[in-house]
Design a protein that fits this description.
The protein is mainly alpha-helical. 55% of the residues lie in helices and 7% in strands. The chain has 14 helices and six strands.
Length: 365
């Protein structure tokens, strides 16, 4: 039978079919010629209806296979935070969806996952972060790998999140914190308070990225993938000048451990939390130093647009969370109406007075 054959190196029957200009040669995994003929006719029939050879690869792939391919083939090469994505995926998404076929996961199944995570006591923001990873995973599977035609996560609504934390350091708390910090940690905290840089940006800062003559630190790769230049005020500049005079020649990192290596983020977080506990400062984390930087700028009347550029926010909406810290800027806006209203009122009064004088003159005549 044409289109049905056996290979010399295999006991199984194979098909050889041309469908939509593409040739398909596949094993039928059977040694029975009669059964092979039945399979052949069924495949030919389903091919016409587009139900066999048009099947997507994702129909035969599990979510676990998709997740691992995404982490290894995409995230590692394109995302700085790939390790966090991998952790969320392997700890939460894969245990739940892992054995399901990629094309069998529907919006209903994903909604059930949200309910499951709520039962575990996680917050809406955590669920949203996990669904965002899953959504991007499916987008790549649709656009680049052709594992599926539909992204089911796009049809699932994100959860409403609580307003972002609004915690910053008072000057009294700052004094207590700096006094309790060991020298290496004190430098990191002061630098964060005076530059607004993220923890990872500070720990990854190298001397090649610092220009003391111009007073600028250049971040070649930030969280959102953009290059950013950070101006150094006197406090930050003097700190770097001091550190540049006594530095490890074997390391290019600005902030180092006692052995000259890059400071481990886990060690920094542990020591920082220990200091906070010892000083009684509650509800505070290292990232709140960045919030403190922004809040203090806004409280001093610095334009929110400038604050956005200093923080490296792509969207001004992210920076506008700090606007309420300077109500006087709103007062300036409404007070501008006073001068305008006064000028208009004066002009109107003069016009009315002129009309009155004219009428009086005409009556006298």
């Amino acid at each position: 039978m044409k289109g049905l054959f056996k290979r010399p190196d295999s006991p199984y029957w194979h098909i050889d079919i041309v469908h939509k200009g593409k040739r398909y040669r596949k094993s039928l995994h059977t040694t029975s010629k009669r059964q092979a003929e039945q399979f052949y006719h069924k495949i030919k029939s389903e091919s016409v209806e587009g139900r066999y050879l048009d099947k997507l690869e994702g129909e035969h792939k599990t979510f676990e296979e998709l997740a691992e391919k995404y982490i290894n083939d995409y995230a590692k090469r394109h995302k700085r935070s790939w390790d966090k994505d991998a952790q969320r995926t392997r700890n939460h998404l894969t245990p739940y969806f892992g054995k399901m076929m990629v094309t069998d996961i529907t919006p209903k199944v994903i909604s059930q996952y949200k309910a499951y995570r709520y039962q575990q006591g996680v917050c809406s923001a955590t669920i949203n972060r996990e669904l965002t990873i899953m959504k991007h995973m499916y987008s790549i599977a649709v656009k680049e790998w052709e594992w599926c035609r539909d992204n089911p996560v796009k049809r699932v609504s994100m959860e409403k999140e609580r307003p972002p934390r609004d915690r910053w350091l008072s000057f009294e708390e700052e004094a207590k914190l700096l006094k309790a910090c060991p020298d290496w940690l004190r430098d990191v905290v002061i630098f964060a308070l005076h530059t607004g840089m993220r923890q990872g940006e500070i720990l990854g800062l190298r001397w090649k990225d610092v220009n003391l003559s111009q007073g600028i630190a250049t971040l070649e790769m930030t969280k959102n993938g953009d290059r950013r230049s950070v101006p150094l005020n006197r406090t930050a500049w003097e700190m770097l000048l001091r550190k540049s005079r006594v530095r490890y020649l074997t390391s290019d990192f600005v902030f180092t451990s006692s052995t000259g290596t890059q400071i481990d983020s886990g060690n920094l977080r542990r020591d920082f939390m220990r200091v906070l506990k010892g000083t009684g400062i509650k509800g505070f984390c290292f990232h709140d130093l960045r919030h403190t930087f922004a809040t203090r700028l806004v409280q001093r009347g610095i334009d929110v647009y400038k604050v956005q550029k200093l923080l490296g926010h792509r969207d001004i909406k992210t920076t506008q969370r700090y606007a309420h810290h300077y109500p006087e800027s709103l007062r300036d806006s409404v007070e501008s109406l006073d001068s305008g209203s006064s000028d208009m009122a004066t002009s109107r009064l003069r016009h009315v007075e002129a009309e009155a004088v004219t009428m009086t003159t005409e009556e006298a005549i």
